[in-house]
Amino acid sequence: MAWRFAVSTLGLPGVPLAEAARIALAHGCEGLEIRVHPDEEVHLGMTSAVVLDAGLAIACLAGYAKVCAPGPDAPVIAELRALIDLAYELGAPAIRVFPGGDGRPHERIAAVLDDLRAAGVRLLVETHDSHPTGEAARRIVEPFEPADVAVLWDAVHPWRHGESPTRTREVLGEYLGYFQLKDARAADPTPLPPGDGEVPLAECAAVLREWSGWVSLEWERAWYPDLPPVEVALRAAARWLL
C-alpha cells in the first residue's frame, strides 16, 4: 500500500491558496486537491502562476465539467480542454470531472484524448450524480486506457446507492484512480468527520490496502458553511489513515 494524503480546498472556501497549503502541510498532507471555480483563486482562464510550498504537490484539479451533460458536445469539449490546459500549466497530474446526465461521454473524452496525453494529465470521472456507483462510472471510462481515463471513487455516493465498498473496488479494478475520503449518515447528506458517520470506512480501508494512489479528504464546507473548520475533519482523517 502506498497512499498519499491530500485535502480538497472545497473545505477551505475563499481561503488563499498559500494558507490552504499551510494548513495541509500542518496536518501531514502531501498534496492539495484544488477546486477550480469562479469564486476561488484557481479558475478557468486564470493567468497568474500558482506556487505551493515545497513538499506539497497538487494531487488533482477538481473541475466541474460534465462529460455526460445533455446537449451539444462542443461546450463540454471546450471546458475539458480548458481544464487540461490549466492542469498542464499548474503541473497537476489529473482533473476531476462529473458525469452529469445521459449525454455522449465516450465521444467527448475521445476528442480530448490526445490533449490529455500531450499534457501528461489523467481524466478522473467521479462517482456522482447520474453515475453514482462504481459500476455506473466504469461504463463511462472503460473504452479508454486507465492510465488516461479512470474513476474517482467518492466514498459516500456508491454506498448511499446500495453498492458496498467491496463491490465498488471490485468493479473498478484497474480503473480506480483516486479515492475521496468522506463520511455522513444514510438519512442526512451533511458531511461528518471521518469515523463519525455511517459510511463503512473500515471496509474502504480494507479493500484499498493493496492499492496505491491519492486519498483526499473532501470536507464540503463550501456547500455547508456551518460545518466545523477543515482542521477538525483533517484530524479525524489522520486517525483513519493510521
From TrEMBL:
Residue stretches making up the Xylose isomerase-like TIM barrel domain: 23-241
User: InterPro entries annotated for this entry?
Assistant: IolE/XylAMocC-like, Xyl_isomerase-like_sf, Xyl_isomerase-like_TIM-brl
- Highest taxon, organism lineage: Bacteria
Membrane-crossing segments per the record: none
**Keywords attached to this entry:** Isomerase
Any one GO molecular-function label of the UniProt entry: isomerase activity
Keyword Repeat part of the UniProt annotation: no
Q: Carries keyword Isomerase?
A: yes
Q: Which PANTHER family match?
A: HYDROXYPYRUVATE ISOMERASE (PTHR12110), XYLOSE ISOMERASE-LIKE TIM BARREL DOMAIN-CONTAINING PROTEIN (PTHR12110:SF21)
Protein name (Swiss-Prot/TrEMBL): Sugar phosphate isomerase/epimerase family protein
